[in-house]
Amino acid sequence: MLTFRGFWVIVRIAKLSGARYIVTDAVGKTSFYEKYGFRPILGGSNPNTVKMFLDLNVIRIANNQRREEKIAN
Fold it and tell me: Which residues constitute the domain of residue 29?
């Protein structure tokens, strides 16, 4: 739930700033980020991390689906 709220705050800020992606440097296993839709960026400069990104439209779509499910129930 906390992760979802954090993503939603980022989406709201993106509306003001024009941002399109979240970019992170994943340390260790990337599976945590992958389960939230992050994808690796090839060719990162730090060999100890994996640079990953998430398109903010993924979060917007998930939120819209969540809203529709609440309305249907």
Answer: 2-72
pLDDT in tens, 24-58: 899 888 898 898 889 999 887 888 899 999 988 88
Q: How far from the centroid of its chain's Cα atoms is residue 46's Cα? A: 21
Residues 6+ apart with CB under 8 A from 48: 27
Least confident residue range of 8-12, 37-41, 61-65: 61-65
Give the number of residues written for the chain. 73
Structural domain total, the chain: 1
Distance, in Å, from the CA atom of 24 to the CA atom of 67, rounded to the nearest integer, reads 27
Contact at 8 Å (CB) between 38 and 62? no
